[in-house]
Amino acid sequence: MPEPEADYGCCDRLAGSAGTACAARAARRRLLKAAVFQHQLDARSAAHARPGGEHSPVATGSSPSGAGARGAQAAGTLASAGFPDASQLPRAVAGTILDVSPQVLVIGDEGGEQRFILSADAGAWRGGSLEPAGLRPGDHAVIRLQPGQRDVADRVWANIGRVTGTIIEHSRDGLIVDEGATRRRQVVVIPPRAAGRIQVRFPTLQPGYLVDVIGLRRGAELEGLVPATSQPAYPVGRVPVSPLVSGHVPETISGSATWHEDADEAPGVLGIAYPELDPETRCAEYAAAGRTRGYARLPYLAIGSAIGIRNDCSGRSCVLPVIGCAAVARLFNDRCVTCGTSPRGRIADLTLASFVALGGELERGCFNARIRIGR
Fold first, then answer.
1. 3 state DSSP class of 219
2. Are residues 197 and 226 located together in one domain of the fold?
3. Do residues 177 and 162 lie in contact, with contact meaning Cβ atoms separated by under 8 Å?
4. 223 and 122 in one domain?
5. What is the CATH number of the domain that holds 260?
6. What whole-number distance in Å separates Cα of residue 141 and Cα of residue 93?
7. What pairing do the DSSP bridges indicate for beta strands 306-311 and 317-325?
8. β-sheet bridge partners, residue 367
9. Which end of the chain is less packed: N or C, by CB atoms within 10 Å?
10. DSSP state, 309?
């Protein structure tokens, strides 16, 4: 069985960092998470404080001052900024399944046990579609909740994982894939039952070519089951040049939005890994890729920039912050065909929670998207 190297590029996405880089990165992430999730918490408070609601000041006869007023004010700020509102978008919750029945799913996480009612049309995925009651205790689950209902689940993914990167070794036992200078190398094992399906979309499983597969996470390995896209025909060192943009810069940019699995990210974090960070950030992954620009023609942005993104398949949209660079996503010139055919190029690599919140189906791997820079 091939083993990935334990030592990998660096612990921070920005080059030139020393021993404090990891601490600085963790601090930035805590601040970003606090900023984004505080908006959501305040919005939920405002939702409960609306007139006629269960905790409405009008319904209880209390003064509009206090937490309800602060929540309403925060909700107004949230709406004007365009940040995701938990009362309008689905939420993603992750944890380990403790018990499951046809009506109720129980998971455990750092905060203790959580119980969710399964909607009448709830579905599940664990290497393929199945009824939620077919899930097993011990599975790691990603649960999509219905908008505005914190205890009703309508979709569950069990043990889902994804590996996207450059093949650096191929043997009879599997693949070793390089996902970038700041991430550990991944081992992908393709079982015989999935080999034909994957090789139809990825005919060249050889070192130097790109691969993108979705499957079941089994510890440090991924059992590859589903091709997330079609393999680009070129090796990673020969990415074609995208067509030049003529005329005015468009207000919105269309392309493919994908999701990534990153063990270093906090569960539930909302944000986008962007393919074209400003070169002044000295992104270590860009230096390793050896290219100045990716395939999709995108403006340079900095960490913390706000991007409005719309899922053209579900119609859902929100504003998300840029939280990192997507050096591998920029090497693909594929299209998303979830609903129609998108222009070539990946324009956003979303966190898992963001992808679910915008209505994406994780096993599909992408959705047709449009982005607008700023709020």
1. coil
2. yes
3. no
4. no
5. 2.40.40.10
6. 8
7. antiparallel
8. 257
9. N
10. E
Split the chain (375 residues) into runs of 10 and give each run's mean pLDDT. 48 40 50 50 45 34 39 43 54 92 90 90 95 94 89 95 94 90 89 94 94 94 95 84 65 92 82 86 56 68 92 93 88 91 92 93 96 79
Give yes or no: residues 299 and 345 share one domain: yes
Q: What is the DSSP letter of 232?
A: P
Q: Which domain holds residue 309?
A: 251-373
Q: What is the CATH number of the domain that holds 208?
A: 2.40.50.140
- Which residue, 14, 8, 3, is CA-closest to 286? 14
Residue 349 token pair: 């690599």
CA 118 to chain centre: 23
Cα distance between the two ends of the chain: 48
Q: Which of 131, 158, 185 is the last residue of a domain?
A: 158
Residues 186 and 4 sit within 8 Å (Cβ to Cβ): yes
Pair 360, 282 in one domain: yes
Beta bridge mates, 301: 277
E-state strands within 110-150: 112-125, 129-130, 140-145
Which pair of tokens denotes residue 274? Answer: 């962007």
CB under 8 Å to 275, separation ≥6 — which residues? 294, 296, 298, 325, 326, 327, 329, 330, 346, 347, 348, 349
